[in-house]
Specification:
- The chain has 74 residues and is mostly helical.
- The protein is elongated and about 45 Å long.
């Protein structure tokens, strides 16, 4: 719902109410920062005692480290 903040927030909160509690982790990803900062989302989180969730970010060293794949069974 790119460019449709209101629709995205309403849709997200409706889905969050229907999902298991553990799915709240979705709010912690950087891609959802614009939604997380919306006052309606902040209110939803506060009502559930989840205000001020820290963002999940990969440490800088991990972002620049090359991915090493191993053969199965090693």
């Amino acid at each position: 719902m790119v460019g449709e903040q209101d629709s995205a927030v309403v849709n997200l909160l409706e889905r969050m109410d229907a999902l298991p509690f553990g799915r709240v982790i979705e709010f912690r990803y950087p891609r959802n920062e614009s939604l997380r900062s919306d006052p309606r989302v902040q209110e939803w989180l506060a009502e559930r005692g989840l205000a001020n969730l820290p963002e999940i970010r990969t440490p800088e060293a991990e972002r620049t480290r090359p991915l090493v794949l191993r053969e199965a069974g090693e």
